Amino acid sequence: MRPRAPLGPTRGTLMHRRLTSVRTPGRVEKPRRRNTPSPQVPDRILNAMTWSRALKEAARSGLTVERAKLTPLLAVRGTAGVAVVIGLCLWRGSPELAVSSAFGAFSSGIVTFQRSMRPRPVLALAVAGALAVSTFFGYLAASHVVAFVLLLTGWTLLAGMAWAIGPVSGLAGTQTVAIMLVTVTLPTSVPGALQHAALIFFGGLVQAALIVAFPVRPWGTQRDALADALAAEADYARRLRHDPVAPFDPAPLMDARLASTVTPRQARRRPVQLHGPRGLAERVRPVLASLADPVVGAPLEGPERDRARDLLGAAATVLDAVAHAVRHARPVRLPPEAMAALEVPATGPMLNGPARRAAYRLISLLADAVELTDEPVQATRPTTEAERGHLLRPSVPRLVPVALRALHREARWSSRIFRHALRVAAVAAAGYLLGTALPFGHGYWAPLTSVMVMRPDFAQTYSRGFARFGGTLVGVSVGGALMALTHPDAYVSAALAVFCVFLMYLLMRTGFSVTSACVAAYVVFLLGIIGEGWQQTVEGRIVLTLIGGLLAMLSYALFPAWETPRLRDRLADWLVTNGRYARAVFDGHARPAERRPRQVREALLDARAARAAWEESAARAEKEPVRHRGLSLRAANAASAALATMGRVTMIGEAHLPGKDAEPSPGAAAFAAALPPALESAARAVRDGAPLDWSGPHAVWERWNAEGGHEGVAVRAAELLLDALDDLAEALSGGPGGAHGAARAAPDGDLS
């Protein structure tokens, strides 16, 4: 049995040291909080959650009001677009037209607040066009119940499939269904339908014009994404000082890459600060891990470790300063202590071997980051030809083939997106028929509630259902009380509706219950423009909202798309992509002259995507009232940690790739060739719950190590990689808490 490499203190000791250590004083640029999964599997993942507990958690999550950074200027600009449309229609048209056209500007404004890297005017115009088409077809079929129900079902099915393209597309599709349900309550002719559709598009056009005329923090989303990535690197460097094998969540780097993908027009106007630091952040991370690692970097104790800690602390300070400069479009300001720590001591270099090379590389990269970020913000630079191959965002027309491929990929019975589309289409049709049959009027409120709360996963659907009803109850109560006490005319009602829009835009990120309350009050005041009685509005809205929310929740319970049974597939996908990344790195050590940088880079991106898919699935499964019989809590946690370690040690091997003039390594070539068959069989074993066998790579490593390969970084990285694979096999073994030890009695909703 091959002895384990001496990795230093245990994980518990390192965690204790990290939590009890005192950080150096000074300003720290922290990454912003995002609704992304943690880099490690949550402690409660795959726990025995019953339906009652799941409903309690969903209600608590939906009714929670979070603290969030407010954007008043953006809220004022979006509200101005709605106010302009309502005011013009009241002045030159009728109250009915004002009510109908307001939804165009309102919905276009909502989409521009989403986290998207597309230009905001393009988003507003694209959504306005979709809303106009939806309105036109809805008006044509509104006078025939059967025709409208068929149109509503088909349109809602397509809108549900839009989630396959992305969350912003899914939200836009939901808005088109909502506007089809709302605006067609005013019967009209074909010319009238065209007029209403034009007014809806005019609302989006107004929002786009205001964005162009009054820009608020241009490139702000891209700046935040890049600054978050740099701040995450800084936090990583700071944690490595006390935990040499600290984990790192690559999600900020993935977001930064997404933000760096630009259209040709954006590439010509992009500030210099957004051009170079992302690539440097990508290269800094493996250097940091290599310097801190106790096997291939500085020893765990002694003067070299002290020097490594100083360098890591200085790197954290520099990266924080660069992140602050990028986020606020300011020059970089560095304390002299950090600059002094990055200089070679007068007594000479204190590090040796790979650690010294990593230190020199780190100092060079940090200097480049400061130099690139400190250039004038007004200077621009087009995207280079090398970047255009993989960082060029397609225009909206060229996005159509990409969208069609995404829809085709999800058009299968096992897809949660496809099941969501079927579910929401059936619920919309049933809710519309039920709401029309009830004597409350405004029967569209029931299907509208269902469509707005339903999402492709269990937790969001149920939490949004509770939030929608609670927010609606508060919103219609407050709005109805004001209407009853003040009896406002059309213009005062319009002013109150606009104020509710401002509150919704301002508080959008605090929680769905808050936005639901603002929207409910907005609808009460908006219908007050045409003289709708507040008593009927309040009573009908509450009852129909409750019905719509119950329909949405019941539909998921009867036709679910649980994520829990897919966890083993996600784990196997992560293992396969990690293996491809490892093979690409060891191929680079084996044949340096033939190394292709893009091969390693693409394999790394695939591994990150697979890890993100696992974490997303794990986060969803945590909230589902089902249990995976073949994967226990302990096995999932241990397997995730092993695969994360596998990616980390592969990254260390990438940081020490030899130059093209280096000698080939037969041992690395043999090890790289032994990985694919072992990984292929291991992936099948993970999916089937069978034992994992790494005897092939073990035998190759033994021969490589016996031939004297221990002097290189590659063989040490291979040893650490095998350690991680052994940990994965142990985690998924049939021992206590392993994969086969989880088949105990499970609650309702159990899955085999």
Distance between the termini: 35 Å
Q: Report the sheet with the most strands, covering strand number, pairing sense and barrel closure.
A: none
The tally of beta strands, per DSSP, is 0
Annotation field: number of helices = 29
Q: Helix content range of the residues, please? A: 55-70%
Mean pLDDT: 82
Overview of this protein structure:
The protein is 68% helix and 0% strand. It is globular. The protein contains 29 helices and no strands. It has 3 domains: 66-217 and 403-558, no CATH class; 220-270 and 272-378, no CATH class; 564-742, no CATH class. The protein has 752 residues and is an all-alpha fold.
Keywords:
752 residues; 68% helix; disordered C terminus; mainly alpha; 0% strand
Describe the SSE topology.
Layout: H1 11-20, H2 51-63, H3 72-92, H4 95-112, H5 120-141, H6 145-161, H7 167-183, H8 190-213, H9 220-240, H10 251-260, H11 264-269, H12 277-292, H13 303-328, H14 336-341, H15 353-373, H16 385-388, H17 399-410, H18 416-437, H19 445-453, H20 458-486, H21 490-506, H22 512-529, H23 534-558, H24 567-590, H25 597-622, H26 633-655, H27 666-688, H28 695-706, H29 713-731
Quick structural summary:
With 752 residues, this protein is an all-alpha fold. It contains 29 helices and no strands. The radius of gyration is 29 Å and the shape is globular.
